[in-house]
């Protein structure tokens, strides 16, 4: 069974959540990133031939990494590397133009599409689901807000894990069937806690956000994001590609999942026909770098709404809790889409994605102007932090300390 959940998620946050945000910098996230505040030094560890390059090469040589990496500083590329194969059967290597399925990194695009509609006065963060959509029980329609959906505090769960989902999902062969079928499972499920009373990472919640985008915009979710996020950010290699396109297009990396024998197998046929608001859009490393810089540079949202989107909304998990950073020097908050982590006095804003044969990450460092993108078509063991983005983040934070 395939799921598109993030590899690392926060644990339960207790009975209360904060409805207002924690600002990321006194001058605002967007303005800080644009100004390039902080250290201007590019350490040798992050340059070609440096420690990170050697680490990445070793991970690939040991069969632990296959994919592409891009590190940029203040809009300038510092390190771009690709390892492994995009398609083993056709001997197609991964390269800078390879597009990877993003798994849950897709949630960032959904969150931005929602923020754009809020900015236009078409959606409100405190509005209830029932104000936009029909067919939900009262405990969702009358209690769950857009804020709850964005912060994973709605109590809604994961249709991928519901009985019968994958048996039916394998028969869907159009974008309309995928969205409608997913919606049926979302409406058939019941929240595991009252809205606002806890935290549970929710693919269902982000699907509902995508439904709200479509209902308010009066067009399909996929088409709306293509125009207002991908095209607006200059992401020319990004799209919601269908499974037939995935099979045929040499630019699209196949997902290779771990097997019980320790090998890797192509699991493309286990994916949905097309990605959803919760996961599986496609992008290249360069496109995700463009997205990060368009977001912080005011091209996708006004600066105030960028700060609202990227600012932490929930208190961190308790010490030792999943994602709270107990003993690691990281304090992690849930923002409207990404996670906002305070590490050694610096903000790290980003999102990861993980599924069978997929491990992805995009992180931006507004205090120092770095962006780190890691897209892999190998998965990592469950419960294990992905080594490559973790190492990149450690070195970037150390450089700015």
What characteristics describe this protein?
single chain; 401 residues; alpha+beta; 7-stranded antiparallel sheet; 13 strands; 32% helix; disordered N terminus
What is the distance, rounded to the nearest whole angstrom, between the alpha carbons of the first and last residues?
Answer: 42 Å
How many beta-strand elements?
13
What do the pLDDT scores average to?
A: 89
Tally of helical runs: 13
Task: Write structural notes for this entry.
This protein has 401 residues and is an alpha+beta fold. The chain is 32% helix and 16% strand. The chain is built from 13 helices and 13 strands. A seven-stranded antiparallel beta sheet has the order 2-1-13-12-11-10-9, with helices on both faces. A two-stranded antiparallel sheet has the order 3-4. It has a two-stranded antiparallel sheet with strand order 5-8. Helix 2 (51-61) runs antiparallel to helix 13. The longest helix is centred in the middle third of the chain and has 15 residues, at 203-217. The protein starts with 28 loop residues before the first helix and ends with a helix.
